[in-house]
Amino acid sequence: MTYHCLHVLASVKMVAGVSEGEVSTSVLCFILHPTDSKMKPKSFMKVPGSSISLKINGKEYLVDNSLDADTSLNDFIRDGAGLKGTKVMCREGGCGCCVVGVRTFNPHSNTYQPLRALSSCLVPIYACDKWDVVTVEGLGSCKTGYHAVQQRLADFNGTQCGYCSSGMVMNMYSLMSGGGEKLTMQKVEDSFDGNICRCTGYRPILDAFKSFAEDATPELQQKVADIEEAWKGMGMCPRTGEVCDCKDDEARGSSSGPEPYVHLVLSGSEWYRITDLSGLYNILDSHRSEKVRLVLGNTGVGVYKNDGPYVTYVDLSGIGDLFSYSLKARPMEFGAGLSLTKMIQLLDEASQDNAYSYAAVLAKHIRKIANVPVRNGGSWGGNMMMKHDHPEFPSDVFIALETAGASVKIGSSQGERTLTVKEFLKADMEQSVLLTLYLPPKSPDTAMRTFKVMPRSQNAHAYVNAGFAARIHPETFVVLAPPTFVFGGIRADFDHATQTESFVVNKSLADEGVLQAALNILGGEIQPDSQPADASPTYRRTLAQALFYKWVLGIVGEVAGGRMRSGGSGLERPLSSGKQSYTTDKDTYPISEPIPKVEARAQTSGEAQYVNDIPHFPEELQAAVVTTSVGNANIKNIDPTDALAMPGVVGFVDHRDVRGENTFCKLSPPFNLELEPIFTKNRSQYAGQPIGLILARTRREAEEAVNKVRVEYTDAKKPILSIRDALARPDETLMKHFDPLMPCESYDEVVGKAKYTLEGEIEFGSQHHFYLETQVCICVPVEDGLDIYPASQSIDDLQDVVAQTLGIPNNRINIRVRRLGGAFGGKISRANMPAAACAIAADKFNCPVRLVMNFNTNLEAVGKRLPYLIKYKVGFDEKGKLSSVGGTIYSDVGCSYNESMASFAAIMSQNCYYSPVWHWKPVSVLTNTPSNTWTRAPGTTEGIAIIEHIMEHIAEKLGKDPLAVREINFIHEGEKDMMGKPVGPNQLPVLIQQFKESSQFPQRQDDIKNFNQENRWRKRGLSVVPMKYPVGYPPFFKYGILVSVYHQDGTVAVEHGGIEMGQGINTKVAQVCARELGIPLWKIQVKPTTNLASANSSVTGGSMGSELCAHAAALACKELMGRLEPIRTKKGQLPWVDLIKTAFQENIDLTSKHFYTKMDELKGYDIWGLACAEVEVDILTGEKQVLRVDVMEDVGVSMSPLVDVGQVEGAFIMGMGYWLQEKMKYHPDTGKNLSNSTWEYKPPTTKDIPIDFRITFLQDAPNPHGVQRSKATAEPPLCMSVCSLFAVRHAVSAARNDAGNTQPYLLAGPATNDEIQAEALTHPKDFKLR
C-alpha cells in the first residue's frame, strides 16, 4: 500500500489561531486514500468514521483509514506531513531521535495537558486524534528566525553530526513549555535520560540547556552574553535583523477535544476510540475470538515488537475513569491510564502525608524506568500488563507496587474485582481490563527501600531489581511483622524470597548471626536462570544478596562498623560540569577562532538534510534486507514465495540478479584480501548475513515481508564466536599469521636475561559504531546511468563497487553526499554493501529504490570494532624500565580477513615508550560474526591499551606508582621508534608538569588512599595514561577541492572531497577559505560532495580528512588570489565584490581547483597527550561512576577550537563506553547478535559522562609541520580513555586487598558491573555488620 498524498485546501472556521469571527482560512489537509476495506463493522457499533485529525505546528491534517494500525506518528510526520526534521533510528523509544512535543486531551479533567515530550516512533497515528503536535520545524528556521533553544544548542557547540539535535531541541522545548516546577540545572540534567548522542560527549548539550535554568552558573550566563554579543549585526534572525530572541509566541490553539467515539475500518483491522468502560467491555466481548490490543502509551512495542498480529485496536485515552486519582482516599487510588510521569508527581505529593511517606521511595524508583519521553507516554497499567503477559519482564512498576503491598482492581462486563499485585500476574485477563491501583497507608516504623542495578546509569532494564519493606523496631531492629522481599531479573517464575521473609520475623537485623543466616537462606532461594543475553546467574544471585545487605545496612545505621556503613547507600551523582582551556591567535582569524560549526543552526532547526530526508521520488520502492538467522551453516534453499504474496510487495532480489560482480569489495587492492558477497549464496558465515532484498511500496510492508522469506539450512555447526573459540579448534585455516614486527631470533632467551619478567593475557571486546543514522542509500535510474545518494565515508570506493556490480562504466555513476548522521569508520567499506544491493534492485526494477536498514538489522549485519586477545611476555629492571616487550596479538576479524588491524595494533603498542626489543606476532582470527571493520581509532586504541596494561602490570609487580613506571620508560628525542624512525621532541614532561600542578594529583592520590582505607564497600581509583599518537599521510589519501566565486555578488561556493560527518570538516575548510580570500565567513557556502567535482577523492577517516581538505582549500584559494593580484596591482585594494566583478569582466577564471596528493609533501608529526580519570565503585553491585576526567592534548594551534574541543570530548566518551559498558553478546548456538537493540546495547548517556570533565589544549605549541600549525583531534583522545578502565581496576584492587587477595590481576574491557563485582571478589561471606 502506498501513501497517496493529496494536499487539499479546505475552508474551515477555526484552525490554528483563527477565531470564529475571522475570515475562513485554508488549512493543509493530508488525505490518505484507502486501498482495501473488507472489514465490516460489528452490528452493535455505530457507523464507522473515515478519518481522524491532528495538528502539527498549528496546521490541521486529516488521516483517513488507508493506513495500517501500527503506522506511527513518526511515519506520518516524516512521510505524510513531509517534516523531515524529526528523525528516526531505533523505533524502540531508546535513542531520542524522534522526540516531538505533544499536547493531548485529558478526559478526566476535560482539558488539554501542557506540552510534553514523546517518542513519536512508538505512538500509533490513529491514537493522535485531536492532538496538538510540535516538531522542530514549528520552533523556527533560517527563514522565520530561530527559537532560543535551537540557537543556544548551536552556539554552545552542542551539535556534531546533528542527527540527534532535533530530538534534543524538542525534549528541551517541551521541558520549558510544560509548566510546573521552576527550571533548574538539575531538572535539565535529569530530563535527558532518553536522548543519545554518539558524537559530542554530551557536555556542551547539557551546558547549552542548563543555561536556561534559573540557577545557571555565572559562567554559563556569561557564555550566553558573549555569544549574543558575537552574533550582533550578523543578521542571523531574518525576523528582526538582530540577535534572535524568538519565543513560542504563536498561540497554537487546540480544539475542544477528540471526538467522543471513533471507529475506523482499516485494511485488515479495526480501530476504536471509546470514552467509557461499558463501551470497552462491549468491544472486548464481541471480539472474543480475535486478538485485541488495548492502546494507551503503546511504549511496550519498543520491547516486545512481535506480540501481534492484532485484528482489533482499542484506544483507551478517552476513558476518563482511567485517568482519575484520589490522594485523599484510603487507600489512595490511581487510574490505570496515569502516565509514569504523572505517577511520579502524584507519589511525590502523596509522600507529604506521614502514612504515605514511603511514596517517595516509589517515585524515586519509577524515575529509573526507561526515559522521560517514554515515561510521559507509558502508563503504570501498561507496564503491569507487560509483566502480566511476559513474566520474564523485569518490571520496575511491579517491584515498586509489590513492595508497597498494593492491590489493583480489574473489570469486565461480568463485574469488578480486587486482587493483590501478585495475584494479578496470574489472573485471566481475557476480556478484562486493569482499572485502578490502591496504595495502602503504612505505619511509621516501616522501612522500605527499592533497588535497580542496570548496565548503565539510566534508560536501561535491570540486571536485578528488588524491593524490601518491613516494620522494624527503632531500637532493637527486630522485624515486627512478615516483611516483603521481592525481586526481578531472577527468573520468570520467581518474585518473592518467601523463606527469607519467614526467617527474619521477630529477629533483629542488627544481629550478625541473623544477617548471615538470612543471607544463606536467600542465596538458596535465589536460583537465577541462565539466558545468553543476561548477566551470569552467579552475578545475579550475589547481587540479590548484596541488595538485601544494603537494605540491612541502611536500617541499622550507626550500629554497623564504620568501614561497612557506606555499603548501605548507593552512588549519588551530583550535577555535572566541565571546563575547557585553550588559546587562540586573533591575528589569523577566522582560523583558530572559536566559532560554532557552520551548519549547526541548520541541524538544530531540522533543516539539515540527511539521506533519508531526501523527498521520495515518483514510483519509488522501499527495500528491506533479508538476512540469515543461523551462522556457520550451508544454505539449501531461499524461498520468497510467501513474502511475494503479501500486500504491497513488488519483488525480491538476490545473488541471481547481479549482472556484474556479487561483491561489495573493490576488485583491486590495497585493503581487500578476499571478496565479501553482497548477497550470500550457498553459505551463511554468520547470523545476520544479507541474502537478498524485499521490495515493496512502503517500508512497513517491506519489513513485514522479510520475515516471510523462508531459508533452509543444512550442515549447521556450532558457531565460532570468539578468539578463544577459534584457538580451541585445531583448524589453522581460521588464522592468518603476519610477520613479527622487529623479528628476534630467540625472544624467550632475550627476555630471560632481564632481572624481572612477567607474562599475562588481556582481552578487549567489540564495540558497535552506534551511528544514529543507520546504513542508508537511495538509487535512482537516470538517462546517463544511476544517481546514488549514499551514507558513505568513501564515495570513490563506492562508485567503483556499484559500477563493477552492475557491469557498467564508472562514469555512469553519479554520487552526492551532503552529510552523514555519524559514521566512526562504519561507513567506509560497510556502506558499499547497502549501496550495491540498492543499485541491483534499482537496476532490476528500473525505478528509484530506497534502502534504509532498520536498526536491529544494521547491528546484526554490519561489522564492528575488532576484539583482541593479547598474550605477552616482557622483561624489565628493578625500576620498571623495559628491556623487551613481545608476545602474540590476536585480533578477531569476523568472517573475513579484509580489515585486520593486528599489525597496526602491534605498531601502536609502543605508544610513548622505549624498549630495546619489541617482538609482536600479529595474528588475525576468523569467527562466525560479521566482518569487523574500522571503528574510531582502530588499532591505535587497542595498541596503546596493550602497552598501558603492561605498565600497570609492571607497577603492581614492583609495588610502584604506575605513573612513575610510565615516566621512567618515556622515549626521548632522537631515540628510534619501533619502525626505526627517530622521535622528535617529547611534549609529555611539559604536559605532566602542567597536569600535576593543575589537577592536585598528589593530594588526590592521598585522599583516595584514605577513602579506600575507611570504606569496605565503596572504593575509588585514579589513573593517568600518556599518549604519543603518530600522524602520517599515507599515499592513498587524496582529496580534490573546487572553489567557485560568483561574479554577481562575490559569494563563494566550495566543494571538497571529504565527507562531513560531524567532525567539522566543512567548518575548517570554510575558515581557511575565508582567511585566504580575506572575506567574511558568511560569504562562503560549503556544498555537498559529489564524484564529479571531487572525483577520485579517497576515504574520509583517520583524523586526516579535515587537515588535508583544509590544506587543499588553502592552495586553491592561493591560486585564485594569484590570478587576482594583477588587478589589485593595477587598481589598488578594491572591495571584494568590486574586485570579483572586475576580474570577471577581464575574463579571469573565478574557479580554482586543487587535488591533494603525497606530492604536496606534508610531513607527519606526533600528537602528545595525557588523560587522568578518577572513579568510584560500589563493590557490592559493581556500579561505578566517573568522578573526574582531565584530558590534556597537544593540538598545535587549533584551526577551530570549539570543533576540536568537541572532538576530544566526544572521542573520550565513546572510549569510556568501550572500556566500561558496551558489551556484545551472541547466542552460543545460532550466533545471533543478542545486543541488537537499544534494550540490550548500552552506549553512554548523559549521566555516564564524568561529573567533572576538563579539557586543556597545550599552549604555545604550534605544529611547524601541520596544516595551519594545527594537529588532528578526532581519534587520539579515544586512545587515552583506557585510563577510565585502569581507574576502575585500581578501585577493584583495593577491594581485592580487603578480601585478602593481593595477587596482580588485569581487568578486561568492557568492565561491566558483573565483571567488576566478580573481580572485586565480592562474596556474601563478607557481608558483615562489623
Write a structural description.
With 1330 residues, the chain is α+β, with helices and mostly antiparallel strands. The protein contains 36 helices and 47 strands. The chain has an 8-stranded mixed β-sheet with strand order 26-28-24-35-32-33-34-43, sandwiched between helices. Strands 4-3-9-5-8 form a 5-stranded mixed β-sheet. α8 runs antiparallel to α9 and α15 (512-525) runs antiparallel to α16 (537-556). It is globular. It starts with a strand and ends in an 11-residue tail after the last helix. The model is unreliable at 1-47 and 233-251 (pLDDT under 50).
Mean pLDDT: 93
Structural class: alpha+beta
- Residue share in helix: 25-40%
Q: Can you summarize the main beta sheet?
A: 8 strands, mixed
Distance between the termini: 69 Å
Oligomeric state as shown: single chain
Helix count, per DSSP? 36
| Radius of gyration over C-alpha positions, nearest whole angstrom | 31 Å
Total number of strands:
47
Report the portion of residues in β strands: 15-25%
Largest beta sheet: strand ordering: 26-28-24-35-32-33-34-43
Q: Return residue spans where pLDDT drops below 50 for at least 5 consecutive residues.
A: 1-47, 233-251
Overall form: globular
Family: Belongs to the xanthine dehydrogenase family.
Keywords: 2Fe-2S, FAD, Flavoprotein, Iron, Iron-sulfur, Metal-binding, Molybdenum, NAD, Oxidoreductase, Peroxisome
Subcellular location: Peroxisome
Catalytic activity: indole-3-acetaldehyde + O2 + H2O = (indol-3-yl)acetate + H2O2 + H(+)
